[in-house]
Amino acid sequence: MDAREFKNYIITFLFYRCFSEHQEEYLATNNVLDISEGSSVNVAYIAGASGEDPADYLDDISSSLGYAIEPEDTWFPSMKELVILK
Q1: How far apart are CA 75 and CA 64, in angstroms?
Q2: Does the predicted model carry a pTM greater than 0.90?
Q3: What sign does the CA torsion over 31, 66, 59, 54 have?
Q4: CA angle at 24 for the pair 12 and 33, rounded to the nearest 5°
Q5: What sign does the CA torsion over 50, 51, 52, 58 have?
Q6: How far apart, in whole angstroms, are the C-alpha atoms of residue 48 and residue 66?
Q7: What are the counts of helices (DSSP H) followed by strands (DSSP E) for the chain?
Q8: How confident is residue 18, by pLDDT bands cut at 50, 70 and 90?
């Protein structure tokens, strides 16, 4: 892998992480989720979206942010899977 390819991967990961964190901030600050004390936004998002129709959450998020990332595809769960795969 040369430097240009590496740069493309890194920039993609940075944007992905930025979008995920921006979505987490939106979910936490706009009271879209009931986040219990000691829990994270990601855990609450996964639990909430699996209990109800996930399309409701995604529609709400995308109407406000212009994009929506599924609960299992946000930065934290994705990175957790990568660490497990190592």
Answers
A1: 19
A2: no
A3: negative
A4: 150
A5: negative
A6: 21
A7: 4, 0
A8: very high
- pLDDT reported for residue 20: 92
Angle between helices 54-65 and 41-51 (to 10 degrees): 130
Q: Which residue reads 């004390």 in tokens?
A: 37
Q: Is the pLDDT score of 85 beyond 80?
A: no
Phi, psi of 10 (to 5 degrees): -65, -45
Asked whether 79 and 71 are in contact (CB, 8 A), the reply is: no
Helix (H, G, I), strand (E, B) or coil at 35: coil
Give yes or no for a contact between 33 and 41, defined as CB atoms under 8 angstroms apart. Answer: yes
- Whether the CB-CB separation of 82 and 47 falls below 8 Å is answered with no
Q: Which residues contact 77 (CB under 8 A, 6 or more apart)?
A: 42, 46, 71
pLDDT at 62 over 90: yes
Q: What is the pLDDT of residue 82?
A: 60
